């Protein structure tokens, strides 16, 4: 249980939390956020600032932004979501969570000062608190991760000096639309009028981003065209390459213990940071290695088998997990513990994962509305996959540990986070590099 959430429960109960209720349509706009940011005495948000949006890779990109700024000797505030262990981790300065006392005082004050026709949502309140805390602490750069979509996300009410678009795929289709074009149209407006954007988009989504940038007079730098890596290869404990940036500079890069899906995130982060803080040294050899919870996080079970925690829940992110499993343990198939939050394209996600899965244990998520685990099990059985149903995540982990590794917990950050909290109480479980 999150001790901070328990302490703040009386205040949090006054906020609508769409992350948990998962509405099937958009119920918010930027009106309340703009009113909150314009409250008398509210501090001006930090500059420079960067907003990071997209379907997957947002959290990893934000983590690399923060790590690069810290490695360069500057201070950085990073706002991210969802949280895995504690809601305090959503607001961090130089890698340290916001103190619960600070969050409590700011949340109480915000609830008392709230203006407009409705109370702020949980995400709006946390966004305002992050921006004001960063301003109070005088960070050198602020980084804001989009929660959902982009056009109407609370972070889009904040002024920024650059925007990053990672990937776009079919997700949150009940709110954002059921085609790549519709979803891209909701996400690309984070590239602001007259602003600067960095992106790893491709195909139809990239075409929509280009059209948007041209329409609003923004500059758009594309990974593979204006910046990127040359000569990348694995070896000697990591991944090495040459990074080239839009200003023509080239930088030797070595990322220890790298996963393939981190490469674009590092390129995007480095390009954005170099643009925003050009006088700061860009330290990439070795590159700082952020350790993100539940992003291909490696643990070792008591019997010596590896346990991987990953909150992947889309087709492309689960495909990336599958590819990393193949690269690290060629010829071996994984035992999988799987659950899905409501509204996710879990069938498509499983299709990307099943080629490397030996068996699947299906359970339910806790803390949010989830897909019916019986429906997931029935789907897998129709495909001929060896699977079983667990009564809850604890039972699922026990069943997973009865099988040979590698073992993978995936499909939802809620599931991976809950397992991670249990592991923290087990002295035999510890992080390891593989």
Give a nutshell description of this structure.
36% of the residues lie in helices and 19% in strands. The protein is of the alpha/beta class and 434 residues long. It folds into two domains: 3-276, UDP-N-acetylmuramoyl-L-alanine:D-glutamate ligase, CATH 3.40.1190; 297-431, Mur ligase, C-terminal domain (Protein-Tyrosine Phosphatase, Chain A, Alpha-Beta Complex).
Can you give a write-up of this model?
- The structure is a single chain.
- The chain has helices spanning 3-7, 9-12, 18-21, 31-37, 58-71, 100-113, 122-137, 173-176, 180-187, 203-216, 263-276, 315-328, 346-353, 373-382, 393-401, 413-424, and strands spanning 49-53, 76-79, 91-93, 96-97, 141-145, 162-165, 196-199, 219-222, 228-235, 238-244, 250-256, 297-300, 306-309, 334-338, 357-362, 387-389, 407-410, 430-431.
- Residues 428-434 have low confidence and may be disordered.
- The chain is globular.
- The protein has two domains: 3-276, 3-Layer(aba) Sandwich (UDP-N-acetylmuramoyl-L-alanine:D-glutamate ligase); 297-431, Mur ligase, C-terminal domain (Protein-Tyrosine Phosphatase, Chain A, Alpha-Beta Complex), CATH 3.90.190.20.
- Strands 4-3-2-5-1-6-7-8 form an eight-stranded mixed sheet, sandwiched between helices.
- The longest helix has 16 residues, at 122-137.
- The two termini are 29 Å apart.
- Helices cover 36% and strands 19% of the residues.
- The protein contains 16 helices and 18 strands.
- With 434 residues, it is of the alpha/beta class.
């Amino acid at each position: 249980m999150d001790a901070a959430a328990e302490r703040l429960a009386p205040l949090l109960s006054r906020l609508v939390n769409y992350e948990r209720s998962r509405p099937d349509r958009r119920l918010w706009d930027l009106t309340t956020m703009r009113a909150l940011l314009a409250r008398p005495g509210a501090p001006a948000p930090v500059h420079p600032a960067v907003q990071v949006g997209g379907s997957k890779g947002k959290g990893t990109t934000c983590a690399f932004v923060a790590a690069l700024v810290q490695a360069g000797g500057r201070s950085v505030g990073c706002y991210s979501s969802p949280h895995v262990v504690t809601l305090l981790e959503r607001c961090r300065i130089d890698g340290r969570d916001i103190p619960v006392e600070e969050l409590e005082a700011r949340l109480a004050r915000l609830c008392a000062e709230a203006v407009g026709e409705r109370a702020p949502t949980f995400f709006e309140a946390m966004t305002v608190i992050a921006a004001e805390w960063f301003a109070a602490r005088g960070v050198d750069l602020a980084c804001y991760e989009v929660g959902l979509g982009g056009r109407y996300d609370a972070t889009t009410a904040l002024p920024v000096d650059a925007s990053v678009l990672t990937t776009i795929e079919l997700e949150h289709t009940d709110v954002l639309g059921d085609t790549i074009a519709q979803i891209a149209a909701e996400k690309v407006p984070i590239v602001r009028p007259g602003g600067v954007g960095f992106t790893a988009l491709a195909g139809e989504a990239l075409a929509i981003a280009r059209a948007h940038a041209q329409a609003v007079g923004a500059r758009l730098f594309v990974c593979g065209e204006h910046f990127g890596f040359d000569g990348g290869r694995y070896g000697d404990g990591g991944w090495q390459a040459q990074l080239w940036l839009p200003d023509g500079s080239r930088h030797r890069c070595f990322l220890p213990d790298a996963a393939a899906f981190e490469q674009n995130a590092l390129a995007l982060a480095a390009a954005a940071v170099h643009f925003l803080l050009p006088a700061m040294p860009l330290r990439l050899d070795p590159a700082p290695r952020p350790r993100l919870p539940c992003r291909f996080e490696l643990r070792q079970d008591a019997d010596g088998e590896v346990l991987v925690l990953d909150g992947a829940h889309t087709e492309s992110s689960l495909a990336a997990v599958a590819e990393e499993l193949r690269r690290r343990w060629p010829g071996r198939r994984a035992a999988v513990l799987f659950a899905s939050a409501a509204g996710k394209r879990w069938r498509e996600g499983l299709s990307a994962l099943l080629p490397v899965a030996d068996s699947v244990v299906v359970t339910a998520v806790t803390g949010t509305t989830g897909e019916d685990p019986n429906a997931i099990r029935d789907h897998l059985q129709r495909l001929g996959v060896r699977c079983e149903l667990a009564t809850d995540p604890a039972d699922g982990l026990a069943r997973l540990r009865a099988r040979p590794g590698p073992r993978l917990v995936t499909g939802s950050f809620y599931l991976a986070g809950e397992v991670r909290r249990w592991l923290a109480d087990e002295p035999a479980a510890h992080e390891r590099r593989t």
